[in-house]
Amino acid sequence: MKSIFGMTLEEMQAEFSAQNLEKYRAKQVAEWLYKKFAKSFSDMTNLPKDLRAALGAKYRIEKPTLRTRLDSADGRTSKFLLVFPDGASVESVLMRQPYGNSICISTQAGCNMGCAFCASTLHGLARNLTAGEMLAEVLFIEEMLSKEGEKVDTMVLMGSGEPLMNYDNVVCFLRLLHEKYVLNMGYRNITLSTSGIVPAIDDLAEEGMPITLSISLHAPREELRTDLMPINRKYPLADVVAAGRRYAEKTGRRVTYEYILIRDLNDGEREARELAKLLKGQTASVNLIPVNPVPERGFERPTDESVASFCSILAHHRITATVRREMGSDIQAACGQLRSRHMSAEEKLQ
């Protein structure tokens, strides 16, 4: 059976027209799937019973199930491990911010970028997620919030996986999320985080979706970044920053550069000065992130003094910088940690 969850309204209309069904039925089904969180065609009570049975025989509504949930002690962060029918698992996070409910979703099951500090890469890439599977992550949390009279306000594609290595599915997902018959989420409420896939950054700038681009740098010079992020061998630091500049010029959107601070590795005064020089003249800001230690990686958090000094040096050079406020550190909120903990021994060996 074909999966219907994740189809656009136009795709559903084409499917239904080919079966000589009325065009308006597609709109009804889309509303049930994306607004009313229907789990099966039998839930769609304004469709005739014979039509519900016929659709159920031809299409499947593929959604993940909740394997485990962790809630932070302050009640502001919840992390969900969701499992799809084929066994692929992903992490999604809800962060209750002062400005609204923000979610962080995964775009791949696992990751093959190999970043030295990240738990998501520990077991490699299982597979890409489809547009429908990414949407299912969002609507899982949206349905939960709707019962509290709330909704998802903003979203970051900053969970497991490299979004721009799953480019077509990610773009389809973002366009679907923007549709009025889904969540009608404004593109300016969306941030996409990338390790710096240069050709895809340029492609994204041409899509006409004014989303915020967040680029992971984590080092201000080539050799150090290569040690931390192997992708730097293919897309060097200088090319990545140039692509960020082009994105800002094309879209008019400020680019955010993420910089994970690791004790005695990239958190010194030298690195701060080099980063300021690298980003001089950019329409950009820096998001400083004290590393969330992953036991298998062995990196340590910087001292509060070194974080403050790093931020001060950037400010002195007129580079806008903020230190990310930590949320959910008590529930393994770093990408990949919860998934890794629940993977079977067999899965880890694959």
Describe this entry's structure for a reader.
The protein has 350 residues and is an alpha/beta fold. It has 12 helices and 14 strands. The strands form 3 sheets. The protein has a 10-stranded mixed sheet with strand order 3-4-5-6-9-10-11-12-13-14, with helices on one face. The radius of gyration is 21 Å and the shape is elongated.
How would you sum up this structure in a few lines?
With 350 residues, the chain is an alpha/beta fold. It has helices at residues 9-18, 24-34, 49-58, 131-146, 167-178, 198-205, 222-228, 237-251, 269-279, 304-316, 337-342, 345-349, and strands at 2-3, 59-60, 65-71, 77-83, 89-97, 100-105, 108-110, 125-128, 154-157, 190-194, 212-216, 255-261, 284-290, 321-323.
Please give the number of β-strands: 14
How are helices and strands ordered from N to C? EHHHEEEEEEEHEHEHEHHEHEHEHH
Rg over C-alpha atoms, rounded to the nearest angstrom: 21 Å
Q: End-to-end distance, in Å?
A: 28 Å
Largest sheet: 10 strands, mixed
Mean pLDDT: 92
Alpha plus pi helix count: 12
Proportion of residues in extended strands: 15-25%
Low-pLDDT stretches are 344-350
**Structural class category:** alpha/beta
What is the 3D form? elongated
Topology:
Layout: E1 2-3, H1 9-18, H2 24-34, H3 49-58, E2 59-60, E3 65-71, E4 77-83, E5 89-97, E6 100-105, E7 108-110, E8 125-128, H4 131-146, E9 154-157, H5 167-178, E10 190-194, H6 198-205, E11 212-216, H7 222-228, H8 237-251, E12 255-261, H9 269-279, E13 284-290, H10 304-316, E14 321-323, H11 337-342, H12 345-349
Parallel strand pairs: 1-2, 6-9, 9-10, 10-11, 11-12, 12-13, 13-14
Antiparallel strand pairs: 3-4, 4-5, 5-6, 7-8
Helix pairs in contact: 1-2, 4-5, 6-8, 9-10
